[in-house]
Amino acid sequence: MIPASAAINRGQVALTLPRLAESVPRKIVPGRLGAANASISRFLLDAKAFRDTDLPESFDDSMRACEQALAKWVAREIGPLRCLRPSFHMQVLSGLGNWVAPSHEANARDPAAYGGVEISWCEASAQEWPVGQRLEELEATLPGLGATVLHVLHRQSLHAYPLFTPEVARDFASWVYWYGEEDEETALDMHCGEDDAEREAARAEMVTRDLLDDAFPMWARTWPGRRSREQGPAGWKTIDLRKALPLLSDPRQRSIVTDASALARLRIEDGFRCDCDGEFVGFGAVLSWSESDLTTRVFDDLMQQANEGECHDRMGEFQIVLNTPSALKKWQQAMRPRFKAIGLIDRLIGALSS
Questions:
Q1: For the chain, what percent of residues have pLDDT higher than 70?
Q2: pLDDT at position 95, please?
Q3: Cα 324 to Cα 90: distance, rounded to the nearest angstrom
Q4: C-alpha–C-alpha distance, residues 58 and 245, integer Å
Q5: CA distance 340 to 164
Q6: Which of 130, 213, 233, 342 is least enclosed, having the fewest CB within 10 Å?
Q7: In angstroms, rounded to a whole number, what is the distance separating the alpha carbons of residues 128 and 294?
Q8: How far is CA 116 from the centre of its chain?
């Protein structure tokens, strides 16, 4: 829209340029492609994947408009978020189940027949959240409480929204620094041999097992019942969060334990894992113990190493054939416990890091 006027005879007569209505698209889409896009949009509306009012009043790309409408539905299901930014995407599939690139379709002489859509999700921008102080306060209030809350976050996030926790940092340190071993000795053998001075110099520059162990309390980097170097054969045990709740007087701690208890009781379907090549690096958040501590160093080194090879950030994906709108409704129903978990995880991270 270009509001303008042209003056004639020193401003005596003003001519207004014509304007296009808001409903007129800015791009012209080839007829067959436009019809295919419309079939996808109609399928999603028939499946009642979202409300008609979720679609923008005007748009050039019906698939992106449907993607925006889906995002509005997801936002309603999850509720307001402070720490996490889940991002949902839609991709057109051919009748053979292959991705169809819109730019290719727009220029193709014979566009591929659309067979379905693929919905995938990931974290838009993972942030660091220091949670150590609050967890240690919980542990000091009631032994095992901080460990149990962290364990619930770790365990349930694996199914709902993966987090980079101290336990995950410990596991990935083995892959990033120690060639899959329990400590750095094999890596030092490969790079330094028997030269003691060179080994000590290299050890001082790298993430060692002792450095990692010293960065977190034992209960923060070990699953319940798992043997550790300090513990010997017996590991720590989780406590019943519902029984712990009446023992707490601090409102903040009661709120944390209430949310952790609700999260622990959720049963989350784990059938939407991505069939992707490479290392998964799509963590929803980095839970450091203190700001910019060793957790963030391991995470950054993991990202750098993974991006040098094959990696992916998809937390999940689901493919739907166009003639099965009921499959989309089943997916939406299956996602509701996951959405509830995401909301609880977000609240817990916010409370533990505040």
A1: 77
A2: 61
A3: 16
A4: 51
A5: 20
A6: 233
A7: 12
A8: 24
Burial (CB count <10 Å: 0-12, 13-18, 19+), residue 142: middle
The CB density around residue 245, as the number of other CB atoms within 10 Å, is 14
Look at residues 335, 324, 330, 334 and name the one whose alpha carbon lies nearest to residue 43: 324
- Distance CA(287)–CA(151), nearest Å, equals 12
Report d(CA 193, CA 210) in Å as an integer: 20
Task: Report which of 81, 119, 80, 82 is spatially closest to residue 99, judged by C-alpha positions.
Answer: 119
Is 346 within 8 Å of 83 (Cβ atoms)?
A: yes
Q: Are 236 and 144 in contact (CB under 8 A)?
A: yes
The 10s digit of each residue's pLDDT in 12-47 is 555 565 665 655 454 545 455 556 566 666 777 776
End-to-end CA distance of the chain: 47
The pLDDT of residue 220 is 87
Q: What CA–CA distance (Å, rounded) separates 44 from 327?
A: 11
Q: Both tokens of residue 316?
A: 């999940």
Residues 180, 304 contacting (CB under 8 angstroms): no
Mean pLDDT of 114-142: 93
> How high is the pLDDT of residue 94?
75
Which helix (H) or strand (E) is 90 found in, with range? Answer: strand 86-94
The Cα–Cα gap between 157 and 177 comes to: 25
Q: The whole model's pTM is what? A: 0.82
| Token output for 347 | 């609240």
| Distance (Å, whole) CA 37 – CA 61 | 8
Nearest to 216 by CA among 142, 126, 146, 128: 146
